[in-house]
Structure formats: C-alpha cells, structure tokens
Amino acid sequence: MSTKKRILFIATEMSPYLELTEFAEVINKLAIKSNDSGLEVRCIMPRFGVINERRHRLHEVVRLSGINVSVDNDDYPLQIKVASLPNARLQVYFLENEDFFKRKQIFHDDDESWFEDNALRTVFFCKGALETVKKFGWPPDIIHCSGWMTGLIPAYIKTAYKKEPVFGNSKVIFTIGENTFTEKLGADFLKQAVINANIKEKDLEAFKEASNTALFKGGASFADAITFGAEKIDKKLVDEFAKVKGKKVVPFKGWDSDLTEYLELYNDLAGK
C-alpha cells in the first residue's frame, strides 16, 4: 500500500487547458512540483466546451460513469474524462455535463451577458467534484481549491460531506485570487447550494451576497488554510483574512516564486 501523502487540486482553471488568470499556470506548476516532491497528485476541473478534447487527448473514464448529481431538485448526469498533464505523470480529471459545460463560452455568452445558470453550474461542479472523489475511493490528505467556482467545496466538506469517510482526514486549502466578475449568482444561490440534509442555508451565510468576493469569502471561511494567489485582491478580503486565528495563511509572494511556500504548507497540514 502506498504511504505517499495525497493531494487533490480542484480548480476552475489550469494551464494548458484553460487560462483565465495567471494562477492557471501556478496550479500547473504546483501539481508538477507536488508530484516531483513525492506527493500523490490528482486534479479535477470543469470540462468547459472551449477545452479541446482532441488536442489535449481527453478520454472518458468508463469505470467512473453512471454518476448523477442532484442539484435544485433535478438530476444531472456527470461524465468524467481524463488526460495526462503534459510533461508530468499525473492525471487531470474533467467533469462534463451537456447542460452546463458543453457550450463554447465560459461564464458569459458572445454578447458578454452573464449566464443565468452560473449558480447551478457552480453547485453542480462542486458537488460533482466531491462525488467523483467518493467514486475514486481515494481519500485525499490535502484538498487545494482555487478559483471562485470552487468556493463551496470547503463548506461542503465541513458540512454536507462531513460524515463521508473519504474526507475524514482531509485538510482544505483555499486560494483567494483576483475578482474576475461583477455580476451576482442570484437570489436563489443559497437555496440551490443546499445539497443534502447535513447542510442548511444558515451554514452558507458567508456566501449570501452571491458575488465574486462572497465566493472567496465563503471558501476561505471554511478552509483550514488560506493562500493569496494574486497581487490585486479585494481589500475587504485581505483585511479579513490576512491574519486569522486558527488558520495558516500564506501571502502572495509574486509570480516568480518557486512555490516552496506551498509545499511547506502541504507538508505541514499533511503531518509530515
């Protein structure tokens, strides 16, 4: 049996598949550096329609098929595809759904209008990622979430999935990045985000504004550790989370950092 510590990256974006901010490249480097450092690494991200399946050699993982994800009283089929990260021996898993991720735009249509179902897409991705890990039967020691679309995952692990053995020893890191949208996820976001009986709307109070800042705030509130992943971060978040009792906080050290600060955090939280 492997004694390696396991780290799971759950990201909205990751180079070379999708690059919305500079942090996409950081996630790529972190995954490779973690793998090279002796950690067992897996990555999960949405399979947006702009990600070229042929170019990146994605293929369906048949053994993981058959998952349905229930969101807002509807069931949506989850298809899982996988690719090998270029120049690294590690797997990236892509979550796909015809309704939410097949379109050839990401969060806005061709007229720059915000998709009305971005809230449902977010809930589906966060729940789908955790259901995928359950299907793996692969308990991660560290779960590193990045990108606003992963904001609900720390909350879900501490509430909706707190009784799941696969997450029983998982420590969660959440990266606060730069704001990339000004719209809201809608008045029903909290109701839609309640995915089972172990979570209530009141548990999600930090997310109530349903804004980019709120997604970061909520994710950071439930995480065991926080990192700052950009130079330009909402000042309210910096003021609130730069020093938090009971949480390890890693400041942003520039785009040219060798990322050692992350490896130290992973090893610290994993108990090495």
Automatic annotation (TrEMBL):
Positions of the Starch synthase catalytic domain: 6-228
Q: Which GO terms describe its molecular function?
A: alpha-1,4-glucan glucosyltransferase (ADP-glucose donor) activity
Q: Looking at the keywords, is Cell inner membrane present?
A: no
Q: Which UniProt keywords apply?
A: Glycosyltransferase, Transferase
**Keyword Repeat among UniProt keywords:** no
Among the Pfam families in the record, one is Glyco_transf_5
Reactions accelerated catalytically: [(1->4)-alpha-D-glucosyl](n) + ADP-alpha-D-glucose = [(1->4)-alpha-D-glucosyl](n+1) + ADP + H(+)
Main EC class of this protein?
A: transferase
* EC numbers: 2.4.1.21
Q: What is this protein called?
A: starch synthase
